[in-house]
């Protein structure tokens, strides 16, 4: 039940002339192709929805995935794809988070990690990426773990940033886009700083999470 659209004006919202669809009970969606304004990078935006395992409503979770050049490819929108859309150096971010060598940002958005984790989409996605079983398993595990960690940081940010929807300052969609964008930008900054300093990066590190949350609150 997420609102999903192709963001044509790079505002991370689904509005105006951008056709919006709802994802189904398994998170699947189908959008017609669309041309962005003034040659902007096209992104798929997903806002809100419910966790299909826990049923928890995630109204403050906005996710983004940069579209590949081939519009017929499947696009999986995850917290990791959201993080990658916020950086000019996605390969560095993937390396810092421990993804298998040679995996690209486009690879991340072209597979369904949850289907692969349950073996329901293994053959199709494995052939598409040309990875052997061990590398594919490592990719799926890293992608799901990082996605949960990033999602948790976003939800924590929602809890600590002052409420803005009850007073009409923002719509729920605008708040979700603001929080997710702020968290992604802060995460990218902290990860890049760690890499430059030769330090390891873990999304479970309490110091990293605290730094990201403080920066998010200040930015928001």
Q: Detail the poorly predicted runs.
A: none
- What is the radius of gyration computed over CA atoms, rounded to a whole number of angstroms? 17 Å
Oligomer: single chain
**What would you call the shape?**
globular
Report strand %. 5-15%
- Average pLDDT rating: 87
Please write the string of helix (H) and strand (E) elements: EEEEHHHHHHHH
Summed up, the helix count is 8
DSSP, total strands: 4
Structural class call reads alpha+beta
Proportion of helical residues: 40-55%
Trace the largest sheet across and list its strands. Answer: 2-1-3-4
User: What does the main sheet amount to?
Assistant: 4 strands, antiparallel
C-alpha termini separation: 26 Å
Could you describe the 3D structure shown?
With 220 residues, the protein is an alpha+beta fold. It is 45% helix and 8% strand. The protein contains eight helices and four strands. The chain has helices spanning 79-84, 90-96, 105-110, 113-117, 122-129, 133-160, 172-196, 206-219, and strands spanning 3-7, 21-22, 43-47, 62-66. It has a four-stranded antiparallel beta sheet with strand order 2-1-3-4. α6 (133-160) packs across α8 (206-219) and α7 (172-196) packs across α8. The longest helix has 28 residues, at 133-160. It is globular and about 45 Å long.
How is this fold's topology laid out?
Layout lengths: L2 E5 L13 E2 L20 E5 L14 E5 L12 H6 L5 H7 L8 H6 L2 H5 L4 H8 L3 H28 L11 H25 L9 H14 L1
Antiparallel strand pairs: 1-2, 1-3, 3-4
From the structure above, extract its key features.
single chain, 220 residues, alpha+beta, four-stranded antiparallel β-sheet, 8 helices, 8% strand
